[in-house]
Amino acid sequence: MAGSWRIDAGDVLATWLPGFGNRDLEMTMADAPTNARASFGDLAPHLAEITDRVVFGDVWANPALSPRDRSLVTITCLISLYRVNEMPFHLKRALENGMTREEIVAVLTHLAFYAGWPPVMTALGIARTVFEEVGREG
């Protein structure tokens, strides 16, 4: 984890890295407080670094898709692939990125016929919990 890397992520990056978001921000990895670093950086620092740099600093910052559209794609994949561990984080992020509860429920309904009933039934329970938590926070 040497040196610095440059990102041009603007408001998209501010969503993922609290306190950051200025365009063309010079960021020193050793000092950057991020979700990846907090979650698993102590155990897998290199994985945290590439998660921050590639996933959030590049893929999520690409202007070809809006943060809302990226969240739509992400939750669709997570639900379809039955990735229950990641669903709460990304469902909350989808709400923060502008998706409504109604849109998320519509995605779940649509996916019931393409991804299958069991993953959608599980995701509905997770969505309910996320909606309740967000309601208490807001």
Number of helices: 7
- CATH evolutionary superfamily of the largest domain: AhpD-like
Which strand order does the major sheet show?
1-2
Beta fraction of the residues?
5-15%
What share of the residues lie within helices? 55-70%
Question: How many structural domains in the coordinates?
Answer: 2
Topology, number of strands: 2
Radius of gyration from CA coordinates? 16 Å
N-to-C SSE string, H for helix and E for strand: EHEHHHHHH
* Mean pLDDT reading: 81
- What's the CATH architecture name of the largest domain? Up-down Bundle
Q: Tell me, briefly, the overall form.
A: globular
CATH class of the largest domain equals Mainly Alpha
Query: Main β-sheet: number of strands, strand sense, barrel status?
Result: 2 strands, antiparallel
Measured between the Cα atoms of the first and last residue, the distance is 37 Å
- Unreliable runs, pLDDT <50, ≥5 residues? 1-13, 20-30
Say what the CATH topology of the largest domain is.
AhpD-like
Strand-pairing-aware structural class: mainly alpha
